[in-house]
């Protein structure tokens, strides 16, 4: 019983102390609120639906970027995916408070503030990171400056010119623009020029190297007005070493393999045919494999397609060279084989008939010449049609001789020289084409 009374008495003594401490805490809270009038404005007299300087000068918004990564650069879809941290700074005179300190607010308070309606131009897909909470930052300075930062992953379109693929350099852009506020309401500027973009020098990409980047300030002319726009433009140079090892070296070795047939005799038909057909099929497979990764960009005639086409032409030419050499050799061998039997006798009879005809024609023409001297020549005895026929025959004879000369010029007299010349001409011409190819695509 005594213990109950004692505990009740102790509780009565402590109640006034607790009340006084609660009151003291309230006074402290009131003191903090008084020293920070910006927080008080969030609930009294602050309209988040009206921009700062509403009805007056435009709001100047300074931006900066931190590039965390650039990945998934797709030639098929012509876009790239980047993870960035976007910082926006502006001054709101309604959020002034005394002191030289800055306070970081809870990110959920951004719903109570006016923020710019910045969006990413040509963005296909974008999202804000929300692990473990929404990746947003709101920092308030005593002079009314607001720092608003967001962590965004976005997929942006990038128009690519693949005519020099894989020795190409692509220029992509990241554009920031106001959606609803035109230049009369807001103006965009970079915080520190090119230094406003951080992280580009540290990027390590799988297929590309960042050559250079620079920032631009522009404006977008729309039907509803002129809107401010900030542009980050950067150049990506593709690393060609992978394609040299994967495509260029194998295709060059296949061309050199096709030249092995030039050192094999023309009589080895299976060996030379096997080398030619195998290299042609291997080159075809290599061409299909190189285009499968860029199946949606077949409308472009790329540099790698040109090189593979050159290699395929040389390989196919080596196969055709053997066909021509073998055919000429077989024709020459057939011409050297002496004919036997009745055919030989028939030939001798034809030769005798031809000699007899020649002798008879010679005697007849001689008699005509003798009789021609005893005949008076007059204009009535001349037959113009005979002269015309003789002139036509002369023209036909001249044309026939020229055609025989042209055909004889292209006729292979010694088929063995075809391989001999091919051993020199094919490598020499291939090296010359390579010099022009690499000089054009690397320096022009």
From TrEMBL:
CDD domains from the UniProt entry: LGIC_TM_GABAAR_pi
Q: What are the GO MF terms of this UniProt record?
A: GABA-A receptor activity; GABA-gated chloride ion channel activity
Q: Name one GO cellular component term.
A: synaptic membrane
PROSITE patterns given in the database record? NEUROTR_ION_CHANNEL (PS00236)
Tell me which InterPro entries the record gives. GABAA/Glycine_rcpt, GABAAp_rcpt, GABAAR_pi_TM, Neur_chan_lig-bd, Neur_chan_lig-bd_sf, Neur_channel, Neuro-gated_channel_TM_sf, Neuro_actylchol_rec
Top-rank taxon, per record: Eukaryota
Ranges that cross the membrane: 240-262, 274-294, 306-324, 424-443
Xref: Pfam families: Neur_chan_LBD, Neur_chan_memb
Using the UniProt record, give the first listed, main subcellular location.
membrane
Q: Quick one: signal sequence residues? A: 1-23
Record keywords: Cell membrane, Chloride, Chloride channel, Disulfide bond, Glycoprotein, Ion channel, Ion transport, Membrane, Signal, Synapse, Transmembrane, Transmembrane helix, Transport
Its UniProt entry gives the catalysed reaction(s) as:
chloride(in) = chloride(out)
Matching SUPFAM superfamilies = Neurotransmitter-gated ion-channel transmembrane pore, Nicotinic receptor ligand binding domain-like
According to the entry, every stretch annotated as the Neurotransmitter-gated ion-channel ligand-binding domain falls at 40-239
* Domain annotation Neurotransmitter-gated ion-channel transmembrane: ranges: 247-340
Q: How does this protein lie in the membrane?
A: Multi-pass membrane protein
Check the record and name the Gene3D superfamilies matching this protein. Neurotransmitter-gated ion-channel ligand-binding domain (2.70.170.10), Neurotransmitter-gated ion-channel transmembrane domain (1.20.58.390)
Family as reported in the entry's similarity comment:
Belongs to the ligand-gated ion channel (TC 1.A.9) family. Gamma-aminobutyric acid receptor (TC 1.A.9.5) subfamily. GABRP sub-subfamily.
Please give the subunit comment from the record. Heteropentamer, formed by a combination of alpha (GABRA1-6), beta (GABRB1-3), gamma (GABRG1-3), delta (GABRD), epsilon (GABRE), rho (GABRR1-3), pi (GABRP) and theta (GABRQ) chains, each subunit exhibiting distinct physiological and pharmacological properties.
Q: What does this protein do?
A: Pi subunit of the heteropentameric ligand-gated chloride channel gated by gamma-aminobutyric acid (GABA). GABA-gated chloride channels, also named GABA(A) receptors (GABAAR), consist of five subunits arranged around a central pore and contain GABA active binding site(s) located at the alpha and beta subunit interfaces. When activated by GABA, GABAARs selectively allow the flow of chloride anions across the cell membrane down their electrochemical gradient. Pi-containing GABAARs are mostly located in peripheral tissues.
Give the matching NCBIfam families. LIC
Q: What is this protein called?
A: Gamma-aminobutyric acid receptor subunit pi
* The species this protein was found in: Chaetops frenatus (Rufous rock-jumper)
Give the gene symbol: Gabrp_1
